[in-house]
């Protein structure tokens, strides 16, 4: 049997007054800023469900990759933790006579830093476009681990989350700032052996940036690192990804962007197999010219062993082939800049 009616009414009034007087502190909304790094996610409809899936996927694979629970942390987390602990120990050794209140404040501050979230959603100002910032020094290894695991297991890990692209740099929208940010991240990827690359340029709003001029300058920047880098729009090994949002630009160097279905998690789970990325010898126009010249040289060396008429006919055909291929080579060199400007469309 419940309490009397009068007492029950008194409890209800007291609960209502407490509820009115209680101050609920709303969580401060965070926005995307220059200098951040993280993951750019796209969704089809429900953004909040997409955010939940991002948290689940990133935390699940981060725990596996960095082994937080087992204490075997990778350099990204281990370096930050060791540095923080060293700073605390150094402060405690130098200041032995420190007040208890100051010591307590330092412990509270250290515990807050230790409990800082690895992944936090921030507002981008673009519909169906979500940015998850991270404290990781480089988000690319984690994204690659997620992509490769989905490709291997063929297991769909998301329903609303479509694409998950690692972002290494965020800068303001401007040609100078974009080139500066690209220079900083390209030093670690293109100062190596020759490779194939492409430039993907996407935008969510209209901006006063000449797309062709920007891509030309970025392609020139990559070639200054190594002149032997080649443009490959079909299956490049490295892709300079550029995404222009409302007032900021996201940049990253991504491996096998086209092979991994433009980092579309749903398409990767459904794909039967990815295109063969085994290196095959592709004969370029220059190699064709060289091979044709070798035919002429070989025929001239063996002229005393064969029929003169046959050798002359082969030489004439080879010379025609050289002239034809040289014309093609000049056309290719003329169109080289246009080929660089082409980029994969953002679905």
Structure write-up:
- This protein has 347 residues and is an alpha+beta fold.
- 49% of the residues lie in helices and 15% in strands.
- The protein has helices at 5-21, 47-66, 75-94, 100-114, 140-153, 175-186, 211-225, 265-270, 285-301, 308-334, 336-341, and strands at 38-43, 119-122, 129-134, 161-167, 169-172, 196-203, 230-231, 238-244, 248-255.
- The strands form two sheets. The chain has a five-stranded mixed sheet with strand order 5-9-8-6-7. A four-stranded antiparallel sheet has the order 2-3-1-4.
- The longest helix has 27 residues, at 308-334.
- Mean pLDDT is 75; it is low at 22-26, 69-75, 277-286, 298-307 and 342-347.
Helices and strands, with pairings:
Elements: H1 5-21, E1 38-43, H2 47-66, H3 75-94, H4 100-114, E2 119-122, E3 129-134, H5 140-153, E4 161-167, E5 169-172, H6 175-186, E6 196-203, H7 211-225, E7 230-231, E8 238-244, E9 248-255, H8 265-270, H9 285-301, H10 308-334, H11 336-341
Parallel strand pairs: 6-7, 6-8
Antiparallel strand pairs: 1-3, 1-4, 2-3, 5-9, 8-9
Which key features would you list for this structure?
347 residues; 49% helix; alpha+beta; 9 strands; five-stranded mixed β-sheet; VC0802-like; four-stranded antiparallel β-sheet; THUMP_dom
Shape: elongated
How far apart lie the N and C ends?
63 Å
The overall pLDDT average reads 75
Order of helices and strands: HEHHHEEHEEHEHEEEHHHH
Helix/sheet category: alpha+beta
**Fraction of residues in β-strands:** 5-15%
CATH level-3 fold name of the domain at 38-69 and 118-270: VC0802-like
């Amino acid at each position: 049997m419940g309490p009397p009616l009068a007492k029950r009414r008194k409890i209800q009034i007291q609960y209502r007054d407490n509820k009115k007087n209680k101050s609920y502190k709303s969580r401060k909304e965070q926005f995307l800023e220059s200098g951040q790094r993280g993951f750019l996610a796209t969704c089809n409809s429900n953004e909040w469900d997409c955010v939940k899936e991002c948290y689940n996927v990133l935390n699940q694979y981060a725990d596996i990759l960095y082994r937080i629970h087992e204490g075997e942390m990778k350099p990204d987390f281990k370096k930050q933790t060791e540095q923080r602990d060293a700073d605390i120990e150094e402060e405690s050794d130098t200041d032995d006579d420190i007040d208890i209140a100051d010591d307590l404040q330092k412990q509270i501050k250290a515990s807050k830093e230790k409990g800082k979230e690895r992944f936090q959603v921030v507002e981008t100002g673009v519909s169906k476009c979500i940015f998850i910032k991270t404290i990781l020094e480089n988000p690319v290894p984690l994204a690659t681990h997620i992509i490769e695991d989905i490709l291997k297991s063929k297991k769909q890990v998301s329903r609303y989350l479509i694409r998950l692209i690692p972002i290494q740099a965020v800068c303001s929208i401007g040609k100078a700032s974009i080139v500066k940010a690209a220079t900083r991240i390209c030093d670690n990827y293109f100062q190596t052996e020759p490779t194939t690359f492409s430039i993907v340029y996407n935008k969510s709003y209209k901006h006063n940036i000449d797309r062709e001029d920007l891509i030309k300058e970025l392609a020139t920047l990559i070639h200054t690192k190594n002149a032997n880098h080649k443009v490959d729009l079909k299956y490049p090994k490295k892709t300079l990804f550029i995404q222009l949002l409302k007032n900021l630009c996201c940049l990253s160097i991504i491996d096998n962007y086209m092979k991994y279905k433009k980092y579309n998690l749903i398409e990767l789970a459904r794909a039967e197999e990815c295109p063969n990325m085994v290196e095959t010898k592709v004969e370029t126009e220059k190699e064709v010219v060289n091979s044709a010249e070798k035919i002429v040289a070989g025929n001239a060396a063996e002229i005393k062993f064969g029929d003169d008429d046959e050798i002359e006919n082969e030489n004439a055909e080879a010379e025609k082939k050289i002239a034809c291929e040289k014309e093609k080579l000049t056309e290719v060199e003329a169109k080289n800049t246009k080929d660089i400007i082409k980029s994969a469309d953002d679905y």
